[in-house]
Amino acid sequence: MSMTLLENISIILVRTKTPANIGAVARCMMNTGLSRLVLVQPKDHLSEDARKLAAGADRILESAQVFQSLAEAVAGHNLVVGTSGQAGKRWKNVRTARDMAGHVAPLLGSNRTAIVFGREVNGLEQQELALCHELIAIPSHHDFPSLNLSHAVMIVAYELFLASGAALARQAPELAPAGELETLYLRMQTTLARVGFLHSENTEHMMQSLRQLFGRASLESRDVRILQGILTEVERNIQGAGKP
Asked: How far is CA 136 from CA 30, 202, 238, in A?
């Protein structure tokens, strides 16, 4: 099992309310060779309750990075994968945990990957899902579909643990960092609105579709620079057209 590959995986928990759940997640991570825990506005992640459920995985709690927003937390990652029990009709990039692990593992040699888990009660909000390039949906029995946070983390972490051991020894492409993609998407939204492609009633839906389209393309930094260059030319032509 390659610990180097697993070290490129971050487990991100967004606004977890129960310290014991954070501790249980730390234990799951230790069980599966993961070490990078990232927390967004956590509650008492170093409390006695958290340490008790960590059951010896205290070092993961103590080394956890803490951020005030998900955008800050994912900025240094090349691939951001969200998790959701209700993917919705708008999402096309939805995989099972096993399928996602098989997709992610060969990329880990060159790419930092974030797996994002939302709040215990209502998961990730729409603006947080918009920051994700792909989505994991964990199927469960319809009579009792809700999973405990640590159980969901364990399912995904276990699949990544297995897949990283079977990952092909090949040079994986280095994907564009999440921060570069967000800059591109924001500029794209502004430019497309200026040319009349986006309107107030369709902006959110269309931008989500475009994010998913480019997410499936697994853009590298060179690809982002090309798209930025295209936007520059479009903007230059808009300005030129406005001159008398």
From this structure: 21, 25, 39
Rg (CA), the chain: 19
Q: What is the pTM of this model?
A: 0.75
Q: What is the mean pLDDT of residues 158-177?
A: 76
CATH code of domain 178-241: 1.10.8.590
> Per-residue confidence at 199, pLDDT binned at 50, 70, 90?
confident
Residues 158 and 173: their CA atoms lie apart, in Å, by 24
* Rounded-to-5 percentages of helix, strand, coil across the chain: 50, 15, 35
- Taking the alpha carbons at both ends of the chain, their separation in whole angstroms is 66
Provide CATH 1.10.8.590 ranges for the chain: 178-241
Work out the percent of the chain whose per-residue pLDDT is above 90.
59
Q: What is the location of CATH 3.40.1280.10 in the chain?
A: 3-166
Across the chain, mean pLDDT equals: 89
Phi-psi region of 55 (alpha: psi -120 to 50; beta: other; left: phi over 0): left
The domain covering 3-166 belongs, at the CATH homologous superfamily level, to SPOUT methyltransferase, trefoil knot domain (3.40.1280.10)
